[in-house]
Amino acid sequence: MDPQMLGMLLFIISEIMVFGAFFTAYFFIRVVDGNPWPAEGTELPKAIAGVNTAILLSSSVTLHWALEAIKRGNRPAFKAGMATTFLLGACFLFIQINEYVHVGFAPYDSAQASVFYGLTGLHGAHVALGLLLLLIVTVRAFRGHFSPQAHRGVEVPGIYWHFVDVMWVIVFSTVYLL
């Protein structure tokens, strides 16, 4: 395994542990303490979060499409896939921030609210980092970088982006649906 791939996988393992700590707090509040979820008098925008989930999962599809395109030497499809992936990710983050503005409770209102903002905010920070990586790859794509033989700079950030997507499915399922 090459060093870049190993480094990304080790980083992702450490990030799984960070998310694990936040999920521990979530399950402690919800299961051990038996507190209602969400807190009484609050409601989570499940439909908006569901649409946002579809947007984020779509970004994984477009990223995969972009990677396959550069592997085949199809530069226009690669550029389109990277730009679309970045825009979908930015849309997800914008909707998440908009949700915070309109959700109707603040992190200091209850333990449940703190955990909600903690988990979704942690994920949002990972999306922001992922968007930075995607932006770098997209700019490089438009500058003619990468080829069918040299595309590791797309694969490694792509693994991180797919990790971010998988983590969102877990956050969405546990926080919004269960």
UniProtKB/TrEMBL annotation:
One of its GO terms (molecular function) is cytochrome-c oxidase activity. It comes from Conexibacter arvalis. It comes from the Bacteria. It is found in: Cell membrane. This is cytochrome-c oxidase. The keyword Acyltransferase does not apply. One of its GO terms (biological process) is aerobic electron transport chain. Keywords: Cell membrane, Membrane, Transmembrane, Transmembrane helix. It catalyses: 4 Fe(II)-[cytochrome c] + O2 + 8 H(+)(in) = 4 Fe(III)-[cytochrome c] + 2 H2O + 4 H(+)(out). InterPro entries: Cyt_c/ubiquinol_Oxase_su3 (IPR024791), Cyt_c_oxidase-like_su3 (IPR000298), Cyt_c_oxidase_su3-like_sf (IPR035973), Cyt_c_oxidase_su3_a-hlx (IPR013833).
